[in-house]
Amino acid sequence: MSQKILLSAKEIEIILHRLACQLIENHQNFEETVLVGIQPRGIFLAERIQQILQNDYKIEEVKTGRLDITFFRDDFRRSEKPLEANKTKIDFLVENKRVVFIDDVLYTGRSIRSALTAIQSFGRPKEIELLTLIDRRFSRHLPIQPDYNGRQVDAINEEKVKVNWVENAGEDCVYLVNK
Amino acid sequence: MGELSVNHLLGIKYITKEDVDLIFETADHFKEVINRPIKKVPSLRDITIANLFFENSTRTRLSFELAEKRLSADMVNFSAASSSVKKGETLIDTVNNILSMKVDMVVMRHPNPGAGVFLSQHVNASIVNAGDGAHEHPTQALLDSYSIREKLGEVTGKNVVIVGDILHSRVALSNIFALKLQGANVKVCGPKTLIPKHIEKLGVEVETNLRKALEWCDVANMLRVQNERMDISYFPTTREYVQQFGLNKNLLDSLDKEITIMHPGPINRGIEITSDVADSDHAIILDQVQNGVAVRMAVIYLLASKIKQ
After folding, report:
1. Which CATH architecture is the domain B12-136+289-307 placed in?
2. Is the pLDDT of residue B287 over 90?
3. Class of domain A2-75+87-178
4. Which of B131, B159, B127, B125 is nearest to B143 (CA)?
5. ipTM over 0.85
6. Residues in chain B whose beta carbon is closer than 8 A to a beta carbon of chain A?
7. Chain A residue with the nearest C-alpha to that of B27
8. Rounded to a whole number, what is the distance in Å from the CA of A88 to chain B's nearest CA?
9. What is the model's pTM?
C-alpha cells in the first residue's frame, strides 16, 4: 500500500477559507441557511466551516447539524460489511430553509442520494446545495455534482481518497492511497 | 457495527451479551428516528414480514406492526381465530404456505413453549419469538433492560426484583436471562405456589416478603397474575394476594429510597399495582411501551441484514 499527499494542512486551510467565502457570497448572513454535515466523515468539515464563518467572518450564528444516512442507503443487505449507524443531530426544522450538505469526498454520489431522502424527515427545504472538499471526477453513478468544491481529483477505482482531520486523526491532510 | 450471532430471535437464552449491546446501540438510533416529524426510514423496503399471532395480544402486536411499518417493511397479519388452523392445519403447513408467498421473516406468538424453536428448525425464514407459552418473550425482556439502562444509566450491578406470578410468566424467564446476562442482581418475589421449583439454579434469589424485596431493589418489575393460565387455585383469594404482594403508595412511601417501577402490561389496576403508583413519576410503564417500538425495530433491522439476497 502506497500513499501520496494530495492536500497539506496549509492547502486545506486555504481551501476552507475559500469555501467559506463562496458560501458567504451566496448566503450572506446565513439567516435562512443551515449547514448539514453528512455522517460519519462530513461532520468535521461542517464544523470547521462553521467555525471559520463564525470566528473569522463574524457571522453571528451558523446553524449546523449532523445527518446519518445509514437507514436510507440503497446497499442494505448488499454490502459485505454490516452498515454502521451514527447519530443524527438536527435541532432545527429545515422547512423552507436553504440547506447546504457538507461531505468530505464526493465519489459515486450514492451517499448524497440517501441524504436527499433522509433530510425530508426534517421538513421540506427551500433548496439543497452540496459542498465537498474532494470531488472524485468521472466516478459518479448518479447525476449529482457539488456546488462548492475544494479540489477535483482524478482517481481510479482501486485508489482511495483518505481525509484526515486533527479531530479524528491528529493532523489535517488528504492522502491518495493505492490499495 | 457488528452482526448478531443468531439468525433468529427465539429467546434471550440463545443470544450473547454482545448481541444485547448491539441491539441497544441500534435501538438508540431508532429511538431518535421515531421522535422525528417523519418517523419512517426506508431500510426494509424489500422485506416482507408475517405476524402470526396464535394467541391474543394488543401491545406486542401493535408494537411489532409499528416497528415494521417504520422500517418500511411490507407486512401481513394473521390471527389464529380466523384461520385454517381451526380447520386442522399443522403449524409447519400454515407457515410454509405463508412463506411460499415470499415472506422473509416471521414474528410469532404461540401458546406452546418452544413453538419458535421448532419452527426455526423446519422452515426457511427468520423467526422472531413474540412469546411462546410460559417459555420466553425476548423482545419484552430486551425493552425492559433497555428502559432500565435509559433510566438508571446501566443494567450491570443493579438490583432488580420481579414480583408476582413467576410460574406462568415468560416475561419473568426472559427477564431473568437478560438481566443475568448483563450482570444485574435478580430476585423473584411472590407466593411460594407461583414461584417455580429450582429457580435458584438460574442464579436468582427467592424472597417471599415484598417489603424486604423492595428495600433491597433499585427496580421492581410488577407482573400480572395470569388467571387465564391457572388450572388450579394458587392463592386463597385475590384480596389476600393484594395485601401481601400488591404495590401501593403507602408501601412505596414508607421505603427510605426511590425505586423505579416497571410493568409489562396489561395492568390489573388495584391488584398487583394500585393506580396512584402506576401513574406516578416512579413508574416508567409508558416509556417501556415507547422503547418497545425502538427495540423491536432494532431486532428486525439486525435480523433482516442477515437475510441473504
Report:
1. 3-Layer(aba) Sandwich (3.40)
2. yes
3. alpha beta
4. B131
5. no
6. 1-3, 26, 29, 32-33, 36-44, 46, 71, 301, 304-305, 307-309
7. A85
8. 8
9. 0.87
